[in-house]
Design a protein that fits this description.
globular; seven-stranded antiparallel beta sheet; alpha+beta; two-stranded antiparallel sheet
Amino acid sequence: MHKMTLVVDGSSEVNNPTWNDVIKAIHSMNGISNSMVVLTTGAGNAILIGGGNSGCYLVSYYPNFSGQISYFLSDSSKKGDAIEITVQTTEMFPARWCIHLDTVIDVINIFYKTGQIPEKYQWEEG
């Protein structure tokens, strides 16, 4: 496992979190009191999970945590109007960026183990 830091809602920080710490943080997301989880690697890559309201999550990846470039996990099978997701503040996001919990867990598990995003999913620059 790579050196990691887990940050929940910008306040609670855990260095070298266990997988249980990560899962607990994600499962606590409700889009109200807990709406953001960030996992960073020692190499500077970061993945942010936002939302949780209505079972909808936003997953974004920041290589080298530069903040300059980001990639959003996308589900092209989802069509329709924008969806309201809370990531500290409530905003409208494309429906294709609404990701279900089981996919979020798989993506985060791979990121937790490797420090990289899984290429088996579709990512789009945001």
